[in-house]
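Issue 218. Parser rejects a valid record. Input:
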Amino acid sequence: MQILTVHPAPPGGSTIAHADVEIIDGVKLYGLRISRAEDGTYRAFGQNSQRGRTCSFSREIVAKIAEATISQLSLMSHRTHDRTRD
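Output the parser choked on:
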């Protein structure tokens, strides 16, 4: 599981971020919306088409996507607040 790009969502909603993810070597999904439900569990949604959903994930895969996304967001936040960098 690799996060290719991540864009934090604005505060105030259930969406944590939008991410481009390489699920396994050679399988990339773009524009996934990662959110947290009221019960504390995570959700991951792909883009919709005129016919509805374009993909779905097991709970285990959603957990891995959410974990990788949150980790990447944490790294981004650390870099933003790192006073040792030029």
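Fixed in the parser; the record now loads. Confidence is low (pLDDT under 50) at residues 81-86.
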